[in-house]
Design goal:
By secondary structure, this protein is mainly α. Helix content is 60%, strand content 0%. The protein has one domain.
C-alpha cells in the first residue's frame, strides 16, 4: 500500500487472498481512525506501524 500497490498487488506479493487484504486494510483504517488509504498511510507512519522498506 505504501508503494501505491493495489489490493490485488498486495495479495499477490504476500500470497494472500484479495478479500483478506481488503479486510485487513479496513481493520487498520478503523484502528487508526482513517477515512482513506492516504490518511491510513499518514497514520501508519505517525503510529510507527511501518518498518524499513525491503525493496
Amino acid at each position: 500500500m505504501h508503494d501505491g500497490y493495489t489490493d490485488q498487488q498486495i495479495a499477490d506479493e504476500l500470497y494472500l487472498g484479495m478479500r483478506t487484504v481488503e479486510r485487513e486494510i479496513n481493520r487498520l483504517m478503523r484502528m487508526s481512525g482513517s477515512r482513506s488509504r492516504f490518511t491510513l498511510g499518514a497514520a501508519a507512519t505517525r503510529l510507527g506501524w511501518l518498518g524499513a522498506a525491503t525493496h
